[in-house]
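Forgive a beginner's question, but would it be possible to get any protein sequence you like and the tokens describing how it folds?
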Amino acid sequence: MYDDNSRGLESPERPVEATVSDQRILADGGTKWADLTGFQRDIIEAVARLEETDTERSGQAIKDVLEETHGEVLHGRLYQNLDSLIDDRLVERGSIDGRTNRYTLTTDARRLLHDHLEQLADACGERVVLTDGGQR
């Protein structure tokens, strides 16, 4: 038995094949879009939507956006995932008032979103054209 938590399912000597996505430069130095859960990706997209419309980005506002597609979102699930995104340096937490937090995407999260947009556009045979003077 190996001491690498593989539980004997595969040999540690077996080479790991790198995929094309592994070879890309990662926006935040480590986290890839595919590393995130679908719910975490949806949180990032919800925060981006709120930022785009200049809407308050409290946990409740994020929850409201998510519930449009997910149905009821439990408080614990939302905040546990927000904390993970903060730990991954994709979301920053600030203060709106003494009780309410504001959540903001980091530059790394915006890059991940943009890179994902380009991948989706490429998969659909489309191009992404920047309309903001070439700035991300």
